[in-house]
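Sample intake sheet
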Amino acid sequence: MSTNTIVSSDDILLKLCHSVSHVLSNTTGSLVSHAGMVQSISRTRLKPDLGCFSIFDGGFSGLVVINFSSEAAIELYRRYMLSMGMPEAELAFSHTSDEVGNVMGELMNQILGDFINKVSKELQTSISQSQPKMLTINKEITISIDANLDDAVARRVSFKTENNHVFYLEFAMDKTEFIKLDEFEFDEEFDPDSLLELHGVSTQSAASGYSIKPQTDGKPCVTNGMTNLDADDLLDELGI
């Protein structure tokens, strides 16, 4: 009798790392890679310069935090907007801009969507996520986030942009294992990118989830429903 396949918490983390690299590389048209080593940490924290987090629940519970340096955030933001055809002269230059926070939040939303889709098919379980929250963080503060997990496993993985700017993924989830009991096949699905290209639609524009609307001053305004929190809002959100 063959040994049953076991998927651990770290295997799930690797799937999340692949989603981060895959989505950011595709949406920015650049190479985003993760380190081959993972660091065990005691708890997750939001750290300077731009922190983003989302809580997920369902088949297993957990917390995802991505801490961007200002350089990494601006590089990814500008590459993404330029790939959408936005004029470079109209792009923000500071990571504290609301527009940068909105874009980074939307990118994290796409990352989690890709991750949840893979987990749902490969592990045959269902999880849902909260709307990602963004916070521009001062050099002097870090904020710890507790997700009330049972027997939590916490990890940190470093990522690098094409211009060698570093950012970090911090991940906490219930220590768990998925054990394959029987053989099964993934459902075949059509490729949405191929369908869009067939009809002459830009895949990045269609997949981005953005609505670009003109403002009264004639400049485009990018909206996506992302909540960009200030420090007080975040503390209220966490009940601190």
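Comment: The helical segments are 9-28, 70-83, 98-122, 192-198, 203-207, 231-238. The chain has six helices and 15 strands.
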